[in-house]
Design a protein that fits this description.
2 domains, three-stranded antiparallel sheet, four-stranded antiparallel sheet, N-terminal domain of TfIIb, 106 residues, 0% helix, mainly beta, elongated, single chain
Length: 106
């Protein structure tokens, strides 16, 4: 592993015109050092996916909640597990007037 002499960031392999070289993604500095073997492993950060309910909301319960978008004081609500099982569920709200969706984590 090599670090950039200018900014200290990690140098990554980059295919040049004639050979593979090391290039800094932060400042663009290039190191003309021969690269023999390269193994790049990136860990993807797990995304918290939120499922938006687009079906008939008339069957959902209604509560008092202030909508920041339109000022309405009533919203449909539902609970959904958005994180791990050891985390509390997230409460979602949907404005009964403008249909804006927001959440409140417990």
């Amino acid at each position: 592993m090599e670090f950039c002499g200018k900014c200290g960031s990690i140098m990554l392999p980059d295919k040049g015109r004639t050979s593979t070289q090391l290039k800094c993604r932060s400042c663009g500095a290039v190191m003309k050092k021969p690269v023999r073997a390269v193994k790049i492993t990136e860990r993807a950060k797990p995304e918290n996916k939120v499922i938006v309910i687009e079906k008939d909301v008339s069957s959902m319960p209604i509560t008092s909640a202030n909508c920041e978008k339109c000022g309405n004081k009533k919203a449909y609500w539902w609970m959904q597990q958005t994180k791990g099982d050891d985390e509390p569920p997230t409460q979602f709200f949907r404005c009964t007037k403008c249909m804006k969706v927001w959440r409140e984590q417990k």
